[in-house]
Amino acid sequence: MGRAGCCCRGAERLASPFLVRRFRLALALIVALCCGSHTGECQVSTPQCRIQKCTTDFVSLTSHLTSAVDGFHTEFCKALRAYSACTQRTAKSCRGNLVFHSAVLGISDLMTQRNCSRDGPTSSTHPEVHPEPCSYHSRTQHAHAHSHVHAHMHSHAHGHSHSHSHSQPGYLFCGLFGDPHLRTFKDSFQTCKVEGAWPLIDNDYLSVQVTNVPVVPGSSATATNKITIIFKPYEGCTDQRVYQAVTDNLPAAFDDGTVSSGDPIHTFTGADGAAGKVRALWISERTPGHHVELHAGYIGVTVIVRQLGRYLTLAVRIPEELAQAYDATQDLQLCLNGCPSSERIDHGGHLPLPLSPPALGLQLHQLRRPSYASQTQAYLYGSPQAFGVEGAKERCREKLEVQDIYFHSCVFDLLTTGDANFTVAAFSAQKDMESLHPHRDRWRIYPRGSATSILNSDCQPIKQLTVLLLSALSVTLMY
C-alpha cells in the first residue's frame, strides 16, 4: 500500500517466479526505459512509437490477476494476445526501438511458457473492474484509472497532443519517540516538552492522542506512557474502534476485546502470489507486549506502537487527502503543525546537548536507597547510568550507524535520562520510519548547521544520479 512506482509497476508479479526469472532482463529493460521516458529522464521512444501505451495497457489488464483466481490462465493469455496485437500495430514506427524489441521477445517467451495460442480472443483494453469499497488502495486505483481514461479520451476528442498528469494518491508519515522527538508530516524534526495529553492527529477519520510524563526530576524532557487511537466509523466498512496502550499494557485487541472489524475483503497478496482475506480494520501483534501494528485498509492507514523500556513509541502512515480532512476546531495536531513554540526544546531544528544530566545524580542516589528501590519497579527496565557525551555517542553507535537526527536524539536522551533503553527506542523509530515513510529521499535528516546536513542538501542531484547508475549496474551484473 502506498508504495511509489512507475508506469509499469506490478509487472514482475504477473507470472510465476520461474517465468519472472526467464523474463527478467526484457522486463527490466521495459520497466526502466518506459518509466524513464514517462518522466522525461530518458527519451527513448519517438512520439509515433506507442510501445509505452501497449505495456501500460498490459499491466492494467493483468495487475489484478493472481494464480489463485479462477480462469487466470485464460485471462492472462487473452491479455498477452492483446499486448502482441498492440505491438504489431505500432511495429513500423518503433523500428530500432530497444523497448519495443524487448517487449516483443518477452511476449513470445511468455506465450511459449504459458502455452498460449497465437489465435484467440483478446482482452478489452479498459475492462470494467469494480473496486473494493472497504479498500482505500482499490478505491483510489479505480478512480485514478477512470480519470486517466477520461483524460485520454478528452485529449483525442479535442485534438490535444499534450499529456495530462494524474498523480497517484500521496502518503504522509509521522513518528514520536524518546523525550519526545516528533517527526511531522512535513518532515520537520522537533524535540518538545508537551507534558500531559496532546493530539497528534485529529481528522474526520482518525484521532491519535498521546500522554507524556516527566522523565527525570529537574528536566523539562518528557516521554510517552499512554497512546489512544480512535478509528472513526466508516459506513459499510467499520463502526468506531478504540485502541489504547499504556506502559506495561500493550494489548493485541481493541478496547471492546475485538481484534478486527468489517467484512473480509480480497486485497492481501502473499509472497507466493496467492490471494488472502483481510478485514477493513485489524490488529497484528508482532512481539507480545512490545510491538503491535494496526492496519486500517479502508482508509489506507498503518500505525506501529511499541514499548521500549518504560515508554512508548508511535509511527503512522496516512493518505495525504485524509490527513487534510479536518475543520477549524481540529487545528491542534502535532503531526500536522508541530509543537507550539512555547513547548519546543530544540532551537529551530538544532538540539543542544545538556552539559550534564540535571537530576541524574539525585536519581542515582535515590535508587541506591533500599527503601526507595523496594518501592519502585526501576529494576525491570535497568538502572540509570551516568553517561558523558563520548560515552553516550559510543552507546548510540552500537545501534545507529548514520549520525543523523535519530543518532543525535539518542545521544540527547542518554545524557538527559541515563536510560539506555532510549538507544533501542531511537533505533526502532528509525526502522519504523523506513518501513512506513513513502519517500526514501527524505529519510535522512541531519542536525541543522552540521557539515553532513550541508553536504546532504547540496549533493542531492549527485546522489540521485549515483543511485540510478548503481541500479543499472546491478541489473547488468545479474546477468
UniProtKB/TrEMBL annotation:
Repulsive guidance molecule N-terminal domain: which residues?
49-118
Could you identify this protein by its name?
Answer: Repulsive guidance molecule BMP co-receptor b
Q: Name one GO cellular component term.
A: plasma membrane
Ranges for the Repulsive guidance molecule C-terminal domain?
Answer: 171-438
Q: Which family does it belong to?
A: Belongs to the repulsive guidance molecule (RGM) family.
UniProt organism field: Echeneis naucrates
Recite the UniProt keywords alphabetically.
Autocatalytic cleavage, Cell membrane, Disulfide bond, Glycoprotein, GPI-anchor, Lipoprotein, Membrane, Signal
Domain of life of the source = Eukaryota
Question: What does the organism's lineage look like at the top?
Answer: Eukaryota, Metazoa, Chordata, Craniata, Vertebrata
Q: Which PANTHER family match?
A: REPULSIVE GUIDANCE MOLECULE B, RGM DOMAIN FAMILY MEMBER DRAG-1
Q: Which residues form a coiled coil?
A: none
- Biased composition (Polar residues) is annotated at 116-126
Gene this chain is encoded by:
rgmb
**Compositional bias annotation for Basic residues:** 139-164
Q: How does it sit in the membrane?
A: Lipid-anchor; GPI-anchor
Alphabetized Pfam families for the sequence: RGM_C, RGM_N
Single GO MF annotation: coreceptor activity
**Signal sequence segment:** 1-42
Q: Which GO terms describe its biological process?
A: BMP signaling pathway; positive regulation of macromolecule metabolic process; regulation of primary metabolic process
